[in-house]
Specification:
Layout lengths: L12 E2 L6 E2 L2 E5 L2 E7 L2 H8 L7 E3 L3 E6 L2 E6 L3 E2 L11 E9 L2 H8 L7 E2 L2 H8 L9 H4 L2 H8 L1 H12 L6 E5 L5 H10 L3
Parallel strand pairs: 4-9, 9-11
Antiparallel strand pairs: 1-8, 2-6, 3-4, 3-5, 6-7, 7-9, 10-11
């Protein structure tokens, strides 16, 4: 059972999707919402959207939620303000989930190939994503130590990701190479039609 939060968080409630929160950003690129994770995700997302504030939907802490076969995402720091569910914590249908490789990972994965977005399966993204830090900053105020140990467990996070993404449709799973500048990677994202 979630613990009682400090008084200054009294207007908030524990997220019902705490098990589905991963280290990712949400950006609206060419009118459609992408989840970006990995190295350089935020700078490239901002470049792909020409730094438009309305297209920068979530940073670092995203809950992935199923709606039928559709995968949705929302900003979720582990606790939500119920008055902001239609704004700050709104759910967005996702068209792409991208893991951004580091420079070292890119050198191994792309060797002598062109730097381009590569389609993969959700398991590949999940393997990388589940090794990232569990990001929501508010969970420590709303969940007890046993619940936190469960939430932080990498194996649990991967199993949950596989269950969450099984049978989804309308989502592209992509690996993005490291590129010399965020503008280069942003242009790569913006050039893809999804």
């Amino acid at each position: 059972m979630p613990k009682q939060p400090p008084p200054f968080f009294a207007q908030m409630r524990a997220s019902e999707h705490a098990e589905s929160i991963y280290y990712a950003d949400l950006f609206r690129i060419n009118g459609k919402v992408w989840a970006l994770t990995g190295t350089g995700k935020s700078d490239a997302g901002r470049a792909a959207t020409a730094k438009r504030r309305d297209d920068d939907l979530a940073r670092d802490s995203v809950a992935f939620v199923r709606d039928g076969a559709m995968l949705m995402g929302r900003y979720d720091p582990g606790a939500l303000n119920p008055d902001m569910l239609n704004d700050l914590h709104a759910l967005h249908p996702l068209v792409a989930v991208v893991y951004c490789l580091s420079e070292t990972e890119t050198a191994k994965a792309f060797a002598n190939r062109p730097l381009e977005l590569v389609d993969v399966d959700p398991e590949t993204v999940g393997l990388m994503l589940s090794k990232s830090v569990y990001p929501p900053p508010m969970v420590q105020h709303f969940f007890d130590d046993n619940e936190l140990a469960h939430l932080y467990n990498d194996e649990r996070r991967l199993r949950h990701w596989l269950k969450l993404t099984a049978g989804t449709s309308g989502v592209r799973w992509l690996l993005a190479p490291w590129m010399p500048t965020a503008a280069d990677k942003g242009a790569l994202y913006a050039s893809l039609v999804v």
